[in-house]
Amino acid sequence: MRGGIGSLITGLVLAVTGIVGAADRPLAEIDARFKPEEIPVCMEYDVGYRFMNLELARVGKVVATTTIGQWHHRVTGEDIPALFLDIQVNSPDSGKTGERNRVSIHDRIVAVMTMPGMNALLFAKYTDEYLHPLIGRKKETVMASVYDAQSGRMDYSACNLQTGVITTNLANPEALWELSQRIKPVMEFLVSQHRAPTKDAVTSEKGRIVANLDGRVVALRILTKRDRSPTCLGKQHLDSTCIVPVAERGSSVKPRDFHAWSLDFKSLATTRRDGELIKAAEDAPVESVVPVVMDYELGLGNVRATMTAIHMGVMSATNSHLLVSKSPKPVSQEKADTH
Prior knowledge:
Blueprint: H1 6-17, H2 28-31, E1 34-36, E2 41-51, E3 54-72, E4 79-90, E5 103-114, E6 120-131, E7 139-148, E8 155-160, E9 166-167, H3 173-180, H4 183-195, E10 208-213, E11 216-228, E12 239-247, E13 258-264, H5 265-272, H6 275-283, E14 289-297, E15 302-312, H7 330-336
Antiparallel strand pairs: 1-3, 2-3, 2-15, 3-4, 4-5, 5-6, 6-7, 7-8, 8-9, 10-11, 11-12, 12-13, 13-14, 14-15
Helix pairs in contact: 5-6
């Protein structure tokens, strides 16, 4: 990593290792730096495993909340307007003390961005995953990682919470720093493509991003097309924009297939006919797109995250993050959903 290690890395390490200070709230040290000022927007998704266009099992739930408030800057010590994105991914547990299912995932991702500039200040992930396949060795991962741009460069720290090993090396931090400063123009590009698609989108500079693919930082281009979404939000097929990141022309990079059917926040709020959501969309300092369905290719089959609810406030009290809806029968689902 570039630059001074010293107090900067010490601060990052303390942030990472302090994550386990509250077992029920990973990344608690980061939470303490944010003071919410507005009611959050909460989005809930069911996650299913699919093969040959059939959903074979529901494997977990994602709950994402976005909140506007004040962030206590680590470097300047000032409180600045910021957007706090909190994503929690959970699979159902066995219900027996000390026993985990063969696939047990309890992850949390946090991102902090300036408002209204939408420059990323910090990205952190807490990973608690246990995988015990029928064939092969079981694998358990408990770690935390922080990508911190508050000093004006991209600094990185990861801690294996089982071994205590801390890693600070990061390949191509300059490219990740560039990405952290390009969120707003990319978001504006996606919003404009949803509302009024243009033919020059495939060459637009705003449609370029860099991404960390399996340890390699590579350039990708965002392609968009109007499409009806797969079933979501109570068996609806929404008029959406399908977002697909692909390799730049001439590149040897082969990213896995990823599709995100999305609407801009105002259109989605109007579709839901929710007065609170509509007002929040009208008052939002920046326009954004919201994915309603996301597909990600695996080695065999793919994972689909499907929006089941969007509302103001925290997650529904009757919809625990460990409660996963029962999978529909594959045949009946495919009759209603051809994607």
